[in-house]
Amino acid sequence: MIRTIIVGSIFTFISINIFAQSVSVLSVPVDARSVAMGNTYLTSSQSNGIYSNMAAYAMEDNKLEIGYNYRPWASDLTDGYSFNSFTAAYSAGFKHYFSLGYKSFAEPDFDISDNNGNVTGSYSPGDYTLGLGYAYKLNDVSAVSVTLNYLNSDLSEENSATAFFADLGFKSKFKQLNYGVMVRNLGSKLSYENSEIALPLTFAAGVGYEKVFSENHSLTGQLDAAYLNGDDESGQTVGVGLEYSYKTLVDIRTGYHSSNEEVGLSFYSLGCGVKLAGFHLDFAYLMADNALKNNYSFSIAWKM
Fold first, then answer.
1. Are 221 and 239 in contact (CB under 8 A)?
2. What pLDDT is attached to residue 242?
3. How many helices and strands in the chain, by DSSP H and E?
4. Hey, how many other C-beta atoms are within 10 angstroms of the C-beta on 279?
5. What residues have CB less than 8 Å from 44, skipping those under 6 apart?
6. Spatial distance between the Cα atoms of 287 and 273, rounded to a whole number of angstroms
7. Residue ranges of the chain whose pLDDT lies below 50
8. For the chain, how are helix, strand and coil distributed in percent, rounded to 5?
9. Which residue intervals of 79-213 are DSSP H helices?
10. CA distances in angstroms from 44 to 25, 157, 194, 198, 279, listed in the order given
11. What b/e sequence results for 145-179 when a residue is b if at least 16 CB atoms lie within 10 Å of its CB, and e otherwise?
12. What is the pLDDT of residue 193?
């Protein structure tokens, strides 16, 4: 029985070109707060730290956090592409922080045919990662982190690959200025049946500034810049974001993300968030003249 690897490869080719880089599951943010603020995350303390900057999570005061994120992809062009992620984070004392994460990228099913062209079944390609993150709080304002990850990329039944990689992070603060740096995707290549793909090694730095106007009103600005280096494509991205918070209960966000066309897509973003009884609900919506037109993200987290 011949598997229609060609069909699966076509879906993968479409996916790669929509993402404009080789392994999209590693570099596309999913949590709605980051997306709404122009894909900025390096100085943000949040439950999704394992997929942003785990060191920033060490600045949190929460004992336990559980989160879920959903983001369809290129839904204005085609159906069946989507991201899902589940995260859990735990504070073990004052200095030690741990996190677990699962993130997947689903693609449309394709048919499996025999030698005569008769459809005998279907196959569901896609990628997923499993991660274990650890952050150590150096002092009251600084932390370092390392996240170990496993990646499985499945193009078809006969054409899949796995890789192991690590993310390194640092976060610190000076007065009202937060700053962070990361090195991401340090690891092995994905070795498919007929090709190899290097993970997009990424160097990133960001700054954030928070201004508290009163007990009820605050404003946070963030700026992130990154350089992605892959086998066939390399380039830079820059994101800026702004968040207004009212009584730490309601957040209004906006941002802009600019990307070199070889490694990503540019867009404007809007979003909002609500906090109630330990639950955090966030939503992001994108405005663009490319495959990200009308794209959105939804996140929910519970913090104790």
1. no
2. 97
3. 4, 18
4. 11
5. 33, 34, 52, 53, 56, 208, 222
6. 18
7. 1-22
8. 10, 55, 35
9. none
10. 20, 39, 40, 28, 17
11. bbbebebbbbbbeebbbebebebbbbbbbeeeebb
12. 80
Q: Which residues contact 118 (CB under 8 A, 6 or more apart)?
A: none
- Cβ contact 171:178 at 8 Å: yes
Amino acid at 254: T
- For residues 263 and 261, what is the distance between their CA atoms, to the nearest angstrom? 6
DSSP 22-69: S-HHHHS--SHHHHHTTS--TT---TTGGGS-HHHHTT---SEEEEEE
SS3 at position 132: strand
Mean pLDDT of the chain: 85
Q: How far apart are CA 231 and CA 199, in angstroms?
A: 8
pTM of the full structure: 0.86
pLDDT at residue number 230? 78
Amino acid 124: pLDDT: 76
The identity of residue 279, as a single letter, is: F
The pairing of beta strand 177-187 with beta strand 190-191? unpaired
Q: Give the CB-side neighbour count of residue 269, counting CA atoms within 13 A.
A: 32
Query: Are the CB atoms for 152 and 133 separated by under 8 Å?
Result: no
